[in-house]
């Protein structure tokens, strides 16, 4: 392979790789928080532990 063909292949690969997040964000479904329907049992069960690893728990000092 020539240097030019290698460069074109690398640029094409980079373009495909960098476009994956944009493609995946465009095909995602609606947010669970934006739904007007009531939550199912599994979502309610997960909700209590959704933020359990957060470091910013406590009262806010920015009032």
Automatic annotation (TrEMBL):
What is the superkingdom listed in this entry's lineage? Eukaryota
Know the name of this protein?
Answer: Uncharacterized protein
Recall the taxonomic lineage recorded for the source organism: Eukaryota, Viridiplantae, Chlorophyta, Mamiellophyceae, Mamiellales
